[in-house]
TrEMBL record:
<feature type="domain" description="Glycoside hydrolase family 20 catalytic">
    <location>
        <begin position="129"/>
        <end position="348"/>
    </location>
</feature>
<keyword id="KW-0326">Glycosidase</keyword>
<keyword id="KW-0378">Hydrolase</keyword>
<dbReference type="Pfam" id="PF00728">
    <property type="entry name" value="Glyco_hydro_20"/>
</dbReference>
<dbReference type="InterPro" id="IPR015883">
    <property type="entry name" value="Glyco_hydro_20_cat"/>
</dbReference>
<dbReference type="InterPro" id="IPR017853">
    <property type="entry name" value="GH"/>
</dbReference>
<dbReference type="InterPro" id="IPR015882">
    <property type="entry name" value="HEX_bac_N"/>
</dbReference>
<dbReference type="GO" id="GO:0005975">
    <property type="term" value="P:carbohydrate metabolic process"/>
</dbReference>
<dbReference type="GO" id="GO:0004563">
    <property type="term" value="F:beta-N-acetylhexosaminidase activity"/>
</dbReference>
<feature type="active site" description="Proton donor">
    <location>
        <position position="280"/>
    </location>
</feature>
<comment type="similarity">
    <text>Belongs to the glycosyl hydrolase 20 family.</text>
</comment>
<protein>
    <submittedName>
        <fullName>Family 20 glycosylhydrolase</fullName>
    </submittedName>
</protein>
<dbReference type="Pfam" id="PF02838">
    <property type="entry name" value="Glyco_hydro_20b"/>
</dbReference>
<dbReference type="InterPro" id="IPR052764">
    <property type="entry name" value="GH20_Enzymes"/>
</dbReference>
<dbReference type="InterPro" id="IPR029018">
    <property type="entry name" value="Hex-like_dom2"/>
</dbReference>
<feature type="domain" description="Beta-hexosaminidase bacterial type N-terminal">
    <location>
        <begin position="2"/>
        <end position="123"/>
    </location>
</feature>
<dbReference type="InterPro" id="IPR025705">
    <property type="entry name" value="Beta_hexosaminidase_sua/sub"/>
</dbReference>
Length: 618
């Protein structure tokens, strides 16, 4: 039997508890009303595993009951679970009881109605264990999918969620921001906030307030607040949206605007925390703030603006958070910010070093360590890369006393990755932030295959792991080449350099595509090994495999054009165009199954452009 996260202590006992159809789940009088509501959610889950719903009551327990008891003198988020032949008793503080219920559900899923006797004592290594999902750069998920995400987070004992928002919330009166999009509404966010709270998850608002505010600062109404002039006249590009659009901090109207947006947005959440982001301020001092930066220094201009936003949040009863990529260059300045502020220290390399975490620790920062699920710019998530990154950042979090782990899932370049794929990285973060005894890549993948994908062979993720080895012309390069050929030349040098850097991935490309066809066959074969409730997760993964294979072949033409590369076998360009467009029909079906339209149109523009491009080749 596997449990994710692994409990801190588990002792097996003799005997089995038979969960008969007439058993009661009894919520002790000591339990809060929240625990009572969560017990009902537990019974929903138990019914799916048992085939019949346990009886639920509140009050004094009787012999043979499954009993939940609340003891708030216990360590925060801790629980003790005892399963004997005669009863099940789960004891914990309010949050710990909910986590213990998830452990019990995982046991039910694997053992059915005959549960092995055992004793578990459990508590998390890191108190705040979060997930960060990009709802801005290409994909806005449906509320129904967000609720499914919250359910899976709770199942693995995560307790914090943030949604990245720049323009993708329907701000009142700011119609230029969302007029061509499908934004989240206030009602949806408030409903989702309630849904999360009942599942032990704090939904923390996150709003970009400084860098890459491309929709805001390209609008006619607010473009005058951009650091660089004439931002509204520049053509849209995926590279440009992330590289520019820093707000002009020297204009008092900028602070007034951002504070107004924060004021509207924060009232939708029960959380008393707020992430102002403030990362990647690439253009600061290159335009309207040039004189101020030359006089005061970029660090001073940056920190003064952060200080004002942080104080505004504190004055409104919220604890501020911000990304740490800028301040890590001058960590001692953390002392100038309010003592309550949380620095979100991110790093996404597979071999991520610990120096940044150490510097912020030595400077006295309160910090979260923030790794990544490594799905951005990919059709299929890089799970090996994510495993190593998350494992290291969890280790640094424990070593340097970080109060949280926030595992990020970004959507760079249109969030082409199907969000269900990065669930694996999410589970890595949940497992390693709860229990610092980290399993090997192969072992954790086998367990996730069994628990999350209900794969009896425990081999599903071993098949998926082969995919990343066979990518050649990846999505990042495909987007950059598309923009370069359309005359968006700002980053041509970077794009060509990236293509040269990745050209090694095109070696043996025909063999890679043959491998991908075999991987697709293996994934089809895995369907037999999976529970029927999880089989729908396989088709999107096969669609992603086909995308990688098709773009690998497209990459032959692109690299021949830019770098003069030659290949022994060139595909029929017209046949390849038709294969691409057929694939895209199914990709759109997968996309729309969980996401609003949002920026799907840009992906469609790219696919249609490549189809036309291929038909022009003789």
């Amino acid at each position: 039997m596997y449990l994710i996260p692994a409990p801190a202590k588990l002792e097996k006992k003799e005997g089995r508890f038979i969960w008969a159809y007439d058993r009661y789940v009894t919520v002790d009088q000591s339990c809060s009303q929240l625990v009572t509501r969560q017990a009902s959610l537990f019974c929903d889950g138990a019914e799916k595993e048992l085939g019949y719903r346990p009886l639920l009551t509140r009050g004094a327990a009787q012999a043979g009951d499954v009993v939940f008891k609340q003891d708030d003198t216990m360590k925060a988020q801790s629980y003790v679970l005892d399963i004997t032949e005669d009863a099940i008793v789960l004891t914990g503080d309010e949050a710990g009881l909910w986590h213990g219920m998830q452990t019990l559900l995982q046991i039910l899923e694997q053992e059915g109605a005959c549960l092995s006797a055992l004793h578990i004592e459990d508590a998390p290594a890191i108190v705040n264990r979060g997930y960060y999902f990009d709802c801005t750069r290409g994909r806005i998920p449906k509320l129904s999918w967000l609720k499914q995400l919250a359910d899976r987070m709770a199942y693995y004992k995560l307790n914090q969620l943030q949604l990245y928002v720049e323009h993708s919330y329907l701000f009142r009166g700011m119609t230029e921001l969302w007029r061509d999009d499908t934004p989240l509404t206030a009602e949806e966010i408030m409903e989702f906030d309630r849904y999360c709270a009942e599942r032990g998850i704090e939904l923390v608002p996150s709003l970009s307030s400084f860098g890459h505010l491309y929709k805001l600062l390209c609008s006619r109404e607010y473009s005058h607040l951009c650091e660089l002039e004439d931002s509204e006249g520049k053509p849209f590009s995926q590279t440009g949206r992330m590289a520019h659009h820093t707000i002009n901090t020297s204009d008092p109207e900028s602070l007034q605007l951002i504070e107004g947006m924060i004021s509207e947005y924060m009232e939708l959440f029960t959380s008393r925390q707020f992430n102002i982001c403030a990362d990647e301020t690439f253009d600061l001092g290159r335009g309207r703030n040039k004189e101020a930066v030359e006089k005061l220094g970029k660090d001073r201009v940056y920190i003064d603006y952060i200080k004002k936003l942080a104080q505004f949040l504190l004055d409104n009863g919220r604890r501020p958070m911000f990304w740490g990529d800028i301040i890590v260059g001058f960590p001692e300045m953390i002392k100038e910010l309010p003592k309550e502020i949380i620095c979100l220290n991110w790093g996404y390399m597979w071999n991520q070093r610990e120096e940044e975490t150490k510097w912020m620790y030595e400077a006295g920062a309160i910090q979260y360590c923030c790794p990544g699920c490594c799905g951005w710019n990919e059709f299929s998530a890089l799970n090996w890369y994510a495993y190593n990154n998350i494992m290291r950042m969890c280790t640094y979090a424990n070593k340097y006393g970080a109060i949280g782990l926030l595992n990020t899932d970004w959507g760079d370049y249109l969030h082409v990755n199907h969000p269900d794929f990065t669930r694996v990285g999410m589970i890595y973060g949940a497992a390693f932030s709860w229990n610092s005894n980290i399993l090997s890549y192969e072992d954790i993948n086998r367990q996730i295959s069994r628990i999350e994908y209900r794969d009896s062979s425990e081999n599903y993720l071993a098949v998926v792991a082969k995919i990343q080895e066979n990518s050649g012309y990846d999505w990042n390069v495909a987007v950059r080449y598309w923009e370069m050929k359309r005359g968006l030349h700002e980053q041509d040098e970077v794009s060509v350099g990236l293509m040269k850097e990745r050209i090694g991935q095109m070696d043996n490309i025909d063999q890679k595509d043959a491998n991908l066809k075999e991987i697709a066959r293996e994934l089809y074969a895995q369907i037999e090994q999976m529970d029927s409730s999880k089989r729908a997760l396989v088709m999107p993964q096969i669609v992603a495999v086909d995308a990688i294979r098709i773009f690998n072949q497209i990459g032959k033409f692109a690299t021949a054009d830019v770098l003069g590369c030659t290949y022994e076998n060139m595909p029929d360009s017209w046949a390849l165009a038709k294969e691409l467009e057929t694939w895209f029909y199914f990709y759109k079906r997968v996309y729309r199954s969980i996401s609003e339209e949002s920026e799907l149109r840009y992906i469609q523009e790219l696919v249609c452009w490549y189809g036309d491009y291929l038909r022009q080749i003789k």
